[in-house]
Amino acid sequence: MSTDYDVIVIGAGNAGLAAAATLQRGGQRTLLLERHNVPGGAATTFVRGRFEFEVSLHQLGGMGGPAPLRQVLDEMDVTRRVEFIEDDQLYRTVVPGVLDVTLPADWARITEVLDSHYPGQRPALTSFLELVRDVGLWQLTARGNLHRIDAEIERLTGMKHVRRHGLRPFREVLDEFFTDERLKFVLSSYWSYNGQLPSRMSFMDFARILALFVETKPYQVVGGSQALSYGMLESFLQAGGEARFHTAVERIVTRGGRAVGVLLEDGQTVSCRVVVSNAPATTTYTRLLDPAEVPSAVLRDLGSRRMGVSATALYLGLDAPAAELGFATAANFIHTDLSEETVARGMRSLEPAPFILASCYDVKPNGCAPPGATQLNLITLQYTDPWDAVPAEEYQRAKQVYAESMLELLKTVAPGVRDVIEEAEIATPITMKRYLSQPGGAIYGFDQDVTDGWLFHDDDLKPNVPGVVLVSNWVTAGGYNSTIVTAARMCRRLLAVL
Ligand SMILES: Cc1cc2nc3c(=O)[nH]c(=O)nc-3n(C[C@H](O)[C@H](O)[C@H](O)COP(=O)(O)OP(=O)(O)OC[C@H]3O[C@@H](n4cnc5c(N)ncnc54)[C@H](O)[C@@H]3O)c2cc1C
């Protein structure tokens, strides 16, 4: 039977764009539908005055050398449309009066730097980082080979140390190797890229993130993440794809239990053979589809998951060069103290920000601030509950008070910032919920901690409802590398059966 399109992709976030470009370039007539007026989902920017502010991208992994994201973007013909900049350093971690350490993106040099700050740790550091590399690279490969995950798990039988440590809490493994709390703290800085504190995060998730950034180096995008989103959209359109913006999908239409099209907000129905949904898994299975058509095991599994963490962000446009303000590193993790409890409390309350990631986009300018000026984004992780509890009439004031606490913490490394603020915009988990349409304002999908994660949900990526495929950070790890690579690889496999 003829259909309007072969495939309809709901949503033009990272995963939806990668899916649409891969399918159209693979010869499938593809329609991309996005409720907003621009592509990207979280991978977007907004303009205030002379600045174009980055919403989500702090560091891009997977780009250095023959890395997974670069390969996928090459296959989609995106790399020649977008310019990428390699960061010089991995990150700087600061606890005022306690530590201030900058790590390079190189295994041997990380050992050197940490051994110079905390002497006598070289043997432990060498074996710890070898373990991180092995576990991290296994996970990165296994995730890219989800179509043959059984073989990947089989491969683990020959990797005893990966099996032994992979699913342990990251904190427990750290404690086994090191005693110096400052050294452990510096090594843990990337916990926030998974949204889980070291005691809750599985060692394999930490290893995946550190291995990704050391092996493939951290990158920035010229023009910000919006330029990357437009690059993927252009690749899709040039291959003959059709995109409609300001177009929300109301329902996935099924016949005999199989998806046959979508119903748009304006009442129009469009038919297709396969629907790829970039909407959250909960939305797709319980709102876009009739839950009665979804296997009960899938609904039970969804019911067992926890909403992931959201974020509060302060976007600053500064009328001074980055170097003058004291920034020599793009990613700066600044904490009030070494305590994990302080951070855990801060994630669930409106107490002064216990930590910020200060991302400076003008150490090597990405073109989103005017020459001589600096874009600085401060972000801290928070669940949405404490913000939901703020009465509407107090919300503006609560935002101001919270932003002040972030600026106080920033002052400890960059005292001059407050005097040169030209633009300031604050976004809370409520803002994330509203603009990103993510349940709970979650920025990485479901909480993935030591008790839960992709290895426990091998059904996520299967077509649980015939004709419906899910792509997003709700079915893989959060982050640009994961969402783009997983969606593109899944859709390449889909091409083989379409
Ligand atoms: C503040 C913040 C900081 C972050 N920092 C980093 C970082 O430094 N590095 C990193 O790698 N990752 C980072 N991330 C995570 C990363 O941005 C996300 O994991 C990723 O962008 C999610 O992509 P996605 O395609 O899964 O979903 P989304 O970006 O949420 O896209 C989903 C799209 O589907 C559309 N949609 C949904 N339902 C419908 C419908 N019914 N009809 C039509 N359209 C629909 C939405 O409008 C949206 O455009 C950050 C995220 C945030 C928010």
Short recap of the structure:
The chain is an alpha/beta fold. Helices cover 37% and strands 20% of the residues.
Helical residue percent band: 25-40%
H/I helix tally: 18
What would CATH call the homologous superfamily of the largest domain?
FAD/NAD(P)-binding domain
Question: How does CATH name the architecture of the largest domain?
Answer: 3-Layer(bba) Sandwich
Low-pLDDT sequence parts: none
Distance between the first and last residues' Cα? 14 Å
| Total number of beta strands | 19
- Total domain units: 3
Question: How large a portion of the residues is in β-strands, by DSSP E?
Answer: 15-25%
Largest sheet: 7 strands, mixed
Sheet/helix structural class: alpha/beta
GO molecular function: oxidoreductase activity
Pfam families: Amino_oxidase (PF01593)
Protein name: NAD(P)/FAD-dependent oxidoreductase
Domain Amine oxidase: 15-494
Topology:
Elements: E1 7-10, H1 14-25, E2 30-33, E3 45-48, E4 51-54, H2 68-75, E5 84-86, E6 89-95, E7 99-104, H3 107-117, H4 122-144, H5 149-155, H6 160-165, H7 170-177, H8 181-187, H9 203-216, E8 219-221, H10 224-238, E9 242-244, E10 249-255, E11 258-264, E12 269-271, E13 274-277, H11 281-288, H12 296-303, E14 310-318, H13 322-325, E15 331-335, H14 340-347, E16 355-360, E17 374-382, H15 385-388, H16 395-411, E18 421-427, H17 429-436, E19 468-470, H18 480-497
Helix pairs in contact: 1-10, 1-18, 3-4, 4-9
Give your account of this protein's structure.
- By secondary structure, the protein is α/β, with parallel strands linked by helices.
- The protein folds into three domains: about 5-85 and about 220-305 and about 450-495, FAD/NAD(P)-binding domain (3-Layer(bba) Sandwich); about 105-215, no CATH class; about 310-445, Polyamine Oxidase, Chain A, domain 2.
- About 35% of the residues lie in helices and about 20% in strands.
- It has 18 helices and 19 strands.
- The protein has helices at about 15-25, 70-75, 105-115, 120-145, 150-155, 160-165, 170-175, 180-185, 205-215, 225-240, 280-290, 295-305, 320-325, 340-345, 385-390, 395-410, 430-435, 480-495, and strands at about 5-10, 30-35, 45-50, 50-55, 85, 90-95, 100-105, 220, 240-245, 250-255, 260-265, 270, 275, 310-320, 330-335, 355-360, 375-380, 420-425, 470.
- The strands form five sheets. A seven-stranded mixed β-sheet has the order 7-6-15-16-17-14-18. It has a five-stranded parallel β-sheet with strand order 9-2-1-13-19, covered by helices on one side. A three-stranded antiparallel β-sheet has the order 10-11-12, with helices on one face.
- Helix 3 runs antiparallel to helix 4 (about 120-145).
- It starts with 6 loop residues before the first strand and ends with a helix.
- The mean pLDDT is about 95.
- The structure holds flavin-adenine dinucleotide.
- One of its GO terms (molecular function) is oxidoreductase activity.
- Keywords: FAD, Flavoprotein, NAD, NADP, Signal.
- InterPro entries: Amino_oxidase, FAD/NAD-bd_sf, Retinol_saturase.
- It comes from Streptomyces qinzhouensis.
- This is NAD(P)/FAD-dependent oxidoreductase.
